[in-house]
From TrEMBL:
It holds the Pfam family FAD_oxidored. InterPro entries: FAD/NAD-bd_sf, HdrA-like. PANTHER family: COB--COM HETERODISULFIDE REDUCTASE IRON-SULFUR SUBUNIT A, FERREDOXIN:COB-COM HETERODISULFIDE REDUCTASE SUBUNIT A. Keywords: 4Fe-4S, Iron, Iron-sulfur, Metal-binding, Oxidoreductase. Gene3D superfamilies: FAD/NAD(P)-binding domain. This is FAD-dependent oxidoreductase. It comes from Ramlibacter terrae.
Length: 470
């Protein structure tokens, strides 16, 4: 690494100092990148992983999204068991959190009949991030934190091109990492974009109820944590005053001028998926986390802002600035008006605004909603048939497989896709195929494919995938 006393490092063809070299270079340490790095290392490869923030986990640690789900085995299940053993898991049920099931403020459990049994399990994002750092260290992954991937160097490879170096920016300046196989773990297909490979920009066809002809990405979100909430008092107020969504308090605050008009944005009820799930200030949307009295709150980019936060710096900056204003206004409203929040305070704001609808790479196969509807099977399936509920499609359940070709971007021979950057159409990725367990699975699949390619001295494109991993 830069700063070492070793012989002067080599330069890349473009003249950038080469600070590391590995069989597998993973860009981004979210669920996809983390699992890819761990699996490839456990398969015996040398691995460098580059992560912008100070821990792996992506949206689920740096972004504060702490919903836990045991998954279907492999690294994801191991991860959840390790979080549990290391004291990072918190579980709430109808006994520990009465008034939660069916509560309009509950991000996940609002639809349950009031009082019904439930179990919500979450993890402490920072504690979980520490565990993930340890797991990579234990495995011997060379993780470089606080490093931004910014570019690639490439060379011709038959009819395609291959990446030779990833270019990163660190406190040491611009540096290069040489690798044989590269893994896209940025969550927004940044490697695909820098490599000049094809992708579809976020913001495709939208539900007709909100369609005005303008292409809008599905909103991203910034999560934050509030501590010191006495939820029993809030639930008692909601019931006593018949004010489930706190509308009476919101109206009172508006009348008193305590909610700036430009920040007021009512819940878009009955307007398709966005109405129920992607709401604006000041309708609180929260999930229990870490222990009693501490909740994650959701601050989603208003749909009408139509921000492309993955490829437009002005949009990304607006999201950060304006969501902070919304959080500030919402916290002030809650503390001043809502019973149970008198002693609450902002404990944490996510390190970044999570992008739900960024670039969608075009791979050797683009998985579409029709593949799910028609329950297609593939000779190169990466998993056994999976059954998933498509709430985009009237909550229908389909059983289908995903082909390995969805992990292979067109035009680049040695790059594997993972997580939210797979070759899927946006309906499939947004509605079903982007949850934490699946993204970790995709990373593990990519890590194994990378290791097999290295062992066989071929590119991931040349690798024959014949058996499902999960
Ligand atoms: C607001 C929001 C809420 C969500 N809620 C849920 C939920 O409740 N349950 C659920 O299961 N899923 C949820 N998801 C979906 C899930 O979190 C994502 O689909 C998943 O995290 C994607 O994993 P990933 O590894 O592809 O990317 P990410 O989690 O985005 O991780 C990408 C990583 O790459 C790093 N990175 C990015 N660019 C660079 C760069 N240039 N250089 C270096 N590092 C870089 C980032 O810092 C990050 O650590 C949510 C997503 C969002 C955005």
């Amino acid at each position: 690494m830069s700063g070492s006393q070793a012989a002067p490092p080599a330069k890349s063809p473009a003249g950038v100092e080469v600070v590391a070299e590995a069989d597998v270079v993973v860009i981004g340490g979210g669920p996809g990148g983390f699992a890819a790095a761990l699996r490839a290392r456990r398969e015996g490869c040398s691995v460098v992983m580059v992560e912008k923030f100070d821990m792996p986990g992506g949206v689920h640690t740096s972004g504060l999204q702490g919903a836990a789900n045991p998954g279907v085995g492999g690294i994801h299940t191991e991860l959840m068991e390790r979080f549990d053993r290391e004291g990072c898991i918190y579980a709430a049920d109808e006994k520990s959190l009465p008034g939660w099931a069916g509560n309009a403020l509950s991000h996940y459990d609002y639809y349950l009949p009031p009082g019904s049994p439930f179990k919500r399990v979450s993890f402490n994002p920072d504690g979980a991030g520490n565990v993930m750092v340890k797991m990579l260290d234990e495995a011997g992954v060379h993780a470089i934190y606080g490093a931004s991937f910014v570019d690639v160097e490439m060379e011709a490879d038959g009819g395609e091109r291959r990446i030779t170096h990833a270019i990163i920016e660190t406190v040491g300046g611009r540096e290069a990492i040489r690798g044989r196989v590269f893994v896209e773990g940025s969550g927004t297909a940044e490697v695909v974009a820098r490599a000049g490979a094809p992708f579809v920009r976020g913001g495709g066809r939208q539900p007709e109820t909100l369609s005005d002809g303008q292409s809008r990405p599905i909103p991203g979100g910034l999560l934050w944590i509030m501590s010191g909430i006495d939820f029993a008092e809030t639930a008692a107020y909601q019931k006593r005053e018949d004010d489930p969504a706190l509308s009476k308090l919101i109206n009172k605050a508006r009348a008193a001028g305590d909610i700036p008009p430009e920040l007021y944005r009512p819940r878009l009820a009955d307007k398709g998926v966005y109405g129920d799930h992607y709401i604006g200030h000041p309708t609180v949307d929260m999930s229990p986390i870490r222990g009693p009295g501490t909740f994650i709150l959701w601050q989603n980019v208003p749909y009408e802002w139509a921000l492309h936060m993955d490829d437009d710096a002005e949009h990304a900056s607006r999201a950060k600035r304006d969501l902070r204003r919304l959080i500030d206004a919402e916290a002030r409203f809650l503390v001043k008006y809502v019973p149970g929040f008198q002693h609450a305070f902002i404990a944490h704001v996510g390190r970044y605004v999570g992008v739900r609808d960024g670039r969608h790479p075009i791979g050797e196969y683009v998985f579409s909603i029709d593949d799910a509807r028609e329950e297609r099977r593939f000779a190169d399936a990466v998993t056994r048939p999976m059954t998933k509920t498509f709430f985009w499609d009237a909550y229908k359940r389909y059983t289908f497989e995903i082909p390995y070709r969805c992990f292979l971007p067109k035009e680049v021979s040695n790059l594997l896709l993972t997580g939210a950057s797979l070759s899927f159409t946006f309906e499939t990725i947004f509605m079903v195929m982007r949850n934490f367990p699946w993204c970790t699975q995709t990373g593990e699949i990519a890590g194994l494919a990378a290791a097999r390619s290295v062992r066989q001295r071929i590119t991931p494109k040349q690798l024959q995938w014949t058996e499902p991993l999960f």
